[in-house]
Design a protein that fits this description.
The structure holds two protein chains of two kinds. Chain A is an all-beta fold. Chain A has strands spanning 3-6, 10-12, 18-25, 33-39, 45-52, 58-60, 68-73, 78-83, 92-98, 118-122. Chain A is built from no helices and ten strands. The mean pLDDT of chain A is 96. The termini of chain B are far apart. Chain B is globular. Classes of the chains: A mainly beta, B mainly beta. The A-B interface holds A 35, 43-47, 61, 95, 97, 100, 108-117 and B 32, 34, 42-46, 49, 55, 87, 89, 91-100.
């Protein structure tokens, strides 16, 4: 079955960087894009951006432009999200989520399935 | 940015009763709306897309309706496993989510 398995929890100091991984299985990795969505404690969901696993094209949310980089490693079917210059308000659970329909291009859609989430805590 | 507003914030319902959740968009999103269920410590689970199409494996007691700016998720007869937080998401533009409705046991 389709599965996205994320890396473990991280604790970082303000100003540091974090890189979260998302390993896909059960489907052809390069056929679907991956989005990243985060959820601050007790808060709602925020879309961070998208990457094509086919060609590495990206679309980032405007508020994170310049601080976030999304990449993929097709040899291991893994997507990565790196966030730099961390602040306390970046403390959140970070999810990867797959596009529902195969495509190499960006398109607007729902997300299915989701990874289990990775808690990133930013604290001095 | 399209702002999604969900109401109520909390809905207290007895098992077996009907639950009606609302989601309003700040501008028309056509039928480009999805609903998710999230339980504590778990990732969101897709319930509905295209405003009214149930995702694979989702029970028929979940139904979605609406278009434009007003949407509804109805759970016809609440089961114990349905007590959770529900989010709407629009994908007519850059994806945005509502703040969620918590369905709790009355």
């Amino acid at each position: 079955q389709v599965q996205l398995v994320q890396s473990g929890a991280e604790v970082k100091k303000p100003g540091a960087s974090v890189k979260v991984s998302c390993k896909a299985s059960g489907y052809t990795f390069t056929s679907y894009g991956i989005s990243w969505v985060r959820q601050a404690p007790g808060q709602g969901l925020e879309w961070m951006g998208w990457i094509s696993a086919y060609n590495g094209n990206t679309n980032y949310a405007q508020k994170l432009q310049g601080r976030v980089t999304m990449t993929t490693d097709t040899s291991t079917s893994t997507a990565y999200m790196e966030l730099r210059s961390l602040r306390s308000d970046d403390t959140a659970v970070y999810y990867c989520a797959r596009d529902p329909i195969p495509s190499s291009s960006w398109y607007l859609a729902w997300f299915d399935p989701w990874g289990q989430g990775t808690l990133v805590t930013v604290s001095s | 940015e399209i702002v999604m507003t969900q109401s109520p914030a909390t809905l207290s319902v007895s098992p077996g009763e009907r639950a009606t959740l609302s989601c309003r968009a700040s501008q028309s999103v056509s039928s480009n709306l999805a609903w998710y269920q999230q339980k504590p410590g778990q990732a969101p689970r897709l319930l509905i897309y295209g405003a009214s199409t149930r995702a694979t494996g989702i029970p028929a007691r979940f139904s979605g309706s609406g278009s434009g700016t007003e949407f509804t998720l109805t759970i016809s007869s609440l089961q114990s496993e349905d007590f959770a937080v529900y989010y709407c998401q629009q994908y007519n533009n850059w994806p945005t989510f509502g703040q969620g409705t918590k369905v709790e046991i009355k």
